[in-house]
Design a protein that fits this description.
467 residues, alpha/beta, Rossmann fold, N-(1-d-carboxylethyl)-l-norvaline Dehydrogenase, domain 2, Single alpha-helices involved in coiled-coils or other helix-helix interfaces, 3 domains, 8-stranded mixed sheet, two-stranded antiparallel ribbon, 54% helix, globular, binds 6-phosphogluconic acid
């Protein structure tokens, strides 16, 4: 403990908050901490070892505020939703104009916009800060996506850059835009995370029929040395090789196949639909998590219709290329969504910068992100990553494998919703004349909704339909 006032404060000492606080203390910044269950504060300090000297334990919101140098910066790392509002309410009476609250949790960006506006009215600043990298990242270097007033970021920039992950020496932290921009970018990061995880799970489903978990682990480890290189492929190899100490079986064989979800994937899809976007690979991944939770329904379905019988499976090289193609499409859909939100909310998001700060620290970090950053700094026609020259070439090489893999899976009856959704997007986007002329005709037939013609200007023509 120190007599000097702390540089920064933090509320919420659960796993993420505790690790972030230790990271800050380790980088040499004095930090005051508070937790609603105050016993946790003592436990945290006594576990902090040599870092305890940089930590000021506080037993009330008032104590916490008093322990920080003004103008104060206080990180909130509490559960999204009502607990964030309750924490803000508890701190408010003790804050002074110019102080800032930094919400570092996974917040719904609509809440962040609302809170930012409300605090601004009171002369206070609210910074919505997306933090990715799980427990390990929080402790040793996460990717940090900051939204809110730019001047407030400047005031805490030294702390944020010091605790962030580094990619070739550059901190993976940036101020991305005002109000909810940081939390929106984090939400889309998680949407892409859902898509990538689902794509990997689909490939696992196609491979596992004729291979042991250990062999599968080798396949993923091998892919991690190539263009699929990424944290998620790396940990897939690791989890596949794990053995359950209780049964001696591969861990994969004892885990229930029902995926949890805290909501960020769903938020991505909800916001995308509101913006007239459809990131099909992310949508499919969210749907697949919901379907995974319907275990009893699936058991009844299996009794009624029979489960698919796994055959020889597609070639490993095809699966590797298919995964790369679908991953490119998923990332591209995420970036297109960011671009739409930036336009709608007037954020001027620098998409290449987003890709840059995702290159290290976050869950979707991958070799591809450096190429994505370069592509987004160059020309990507219609803002589509898939159309940027380097990615168009990659897709030309890899989509045939995606097509073979999806066809094989469909033929065998193996569900590959995310890969199919990625392929459907690609096939739609390479067809200048699609089939919506029929939909327009149907709409005009039953509701006189009107349509545009290819041969004349205007969009309110009606057909001379048979009765
Ligand atoms: C990260 C993770 C992190 C968390 C997700 C898990 O970027 O560090 O995305 O935010 O692990 O919230 O989300 P689900 O529980 O929805 O899978």
């Amino acid at each position: 403990m120190t007599d000097e006032k702390a540089r920064i404060g933090l509320v919420g000492l659960a796993v993420m908050g505790a690790n972030l606080a230790l990271n800050i203390a380790e980088k040499g910044f004095g930090i005051a901490v508070y937790n609603r269950t105050t016993a946790r504060v003592d436990e945290f300090v006594s576990d902090a070892g040599p870092l305890a000297g940089a930590i000021t334990p506080c037993t009330s919101p008032e104590d916490l505020v008093a322990a920080i140098q003004p103008p104060r910066a206080i990180i909130l790392m509490v559960k999204a939703g009502a607990p964030v509002d309750a924490t803000i309410e508890a701190l408010l009476p003790h804050l002074s104009p110019g102080d800032m609250l930094i919400d570092a949790g996974n917040a719904d960006f609509n809440d962040t916009r609302r809170r930012e506006a409300a605090l601004r009215e009171k002369g206070l600043a609210y910074v919505g800060m997306g933090v990715s990298g799980g427990e390990e990242g929080a402790r040793h270097g996460p990717s940090i996506m900051v939204g809110g007033p730019a001047g407030n970021y400047e005031a805490i920039r030294d702390v944020i850059e010091a605790i962030a992950a580094r990619y070739r020496g550059e901190p993976c932290a940036a101020h991305l835009g005002p109000d909810g921009a940081g939390h929106f970018v984090k939400t889309v990061h998680n949407g892409i995370e859902y898509a990538d995880m689902q794509l990997i799970a689909e490939v696992f489903g196609l491979l596992r029929g004729n291979q042991t978990a250990v062999r599968l682990s080798e396949v993923f480890a091998n892919w991690n040395g190539g263009p699929l290189n990424s944290y998620l492929i790396e940990i897939t190899a690791k989890v596949l090789s794990a053995i359950d100490p209780r049964t001696g079986q591969p861990m994969m064989d004892v885990i229930v196949d029902a995926a949890g979800q805290k909501g960020t994937g769903r938020w991505t899809v909800i916001e995308a639909l509101k913006l007239g976007q459809s990131p099909s690979t992310i949508e499919a991944a969210v749907a697949a998590r919901s379907w995974s939770a319907m275990r009893e329904t699936r058991e009844t379905g299996q009794d009624l219709f029979g489960a698919p019988v796994p055959g020889a499976g597609p070639l490993e090289a095809d699966l590797e290329s298919a995964l790369l193609a679908a991953r490119i499409i998923a990332y591209g859909q995420g970036f297109a969504l960011l671009s739409a939100a930036s336009e709608e909310f007037d954020w001027s998001l620098d998409l290449a910068r987003v890709a840059e700060i995702w290159r290290a620290g976050c869950i979707i970090r991958s070799g591809l992100l450096n190429d994505i950053a370069s592509a987004l700094r160059g020309t990507a026609p219609h803002g589509q990553l898939a159309f940027a020259p380097a990615f168009a070439e990659w897709l030309n090489q890899t989509v045939p494998a995606l097509r073979r893999v999806v066809a094989h899976a469909v033929q065998e009856g193996q569900p590959v919703p995310a890969m199919s959704a990625a392929l459907a997007w690609f096939d739609t986007m390479r067809q200048a004349r699609g089939t919506a002329n029929l939909i327009q005709a149907q709409r005009d037939f039953f509701g006189a909704h009107g349509f545009a013609r290819l041969d004349v200007e205007g969009d309110a023509y009606h057909g001379d339909w048979p009765a």
